[in-house]
Amino acid sequence: MTALTRPIAHTLSRLDSDRALAQLVRFAMVGGASNIVYVVVFLLMRPEGALVANAVGAASSTVLANELHRRLTFHAADRVGWFTAQWEAGGLALVGLVATTAAIAALGVVLPSASDFVAAAVVVTVTAIVGGLRFIALRGLVFRGPVF
Q1: How far apart are CA 15 and CA 10, in angstroms?
Q2: In what residue span(s) does the GtrA/DPMS transmembrane domain sit (predicted)?
Q3: Which pLDDT value is given to residue 69?
Q4: Count of domains in the chain?
């Protein structure tokens, strides 16, 4: 290993650990990827209406995120089965769906002519707030690790 690759290898090794900070970084990366999936699905489904687009986007990105969290974020594939992860983590995601749906409804009242991108930005912002709380619940309850 060279002097240049040693710090990279060290950083990657630390990111693969089960420490809270490493899990939080992986959680954010999975969240970012699933938010991209959400936005793409939301924009593709927008002609069906914002609420339908939100529900389909949330369902698609949630199933993906739950599985990635189970396997990558929390290294829980050997402790928690796919169905259990989808059921329990999906229940937590339902809270997020309610929050994003309320945000979209409020946006429709406050700014009825808001663009699709403004609506998506509102949803992503609400999702980020809910995401922090979801990380704690997933880490401590669903995937059975210590909370801190």
Answers
A1: 9
A2: 26-143
A3: 95
A4: 1
* Chain centroid to CA 37: 10
pLDDT digits (tens, 9 = 90+) for 52-61: 998 899 889 9
Q: Does 102 reside within a domain?
A: yes
Chain-centre distance for alpha carbon 75:
16
Residue 97 has pLDDT above 80, yes or no: no
Q: Which domain holds residue 33?
A: 5-142
pLDDT at residue 146, rounded to an integer: 47
Residue-level pLDDT at 82: 93
The closest of 143, 133, 21, 146 to 75, measured between CA atoms, is: 143
pTM equals: 0.72
Evaluate whether residue 130 is within a structural domain. Answer: yes
Looking at 1-148, list the stretches that DSSP marks H as alpha helix, in order from N- to C-terminal side.
5-15, 20-45, 50-68, 82-110, 116-137
Cβ pair 41, 55 in contact under 8 A? no
Any residues with CB less than 8 A from the CB of 23 and at least 6 apart, and which?
Answer: 73, 74, 135, 139, 145
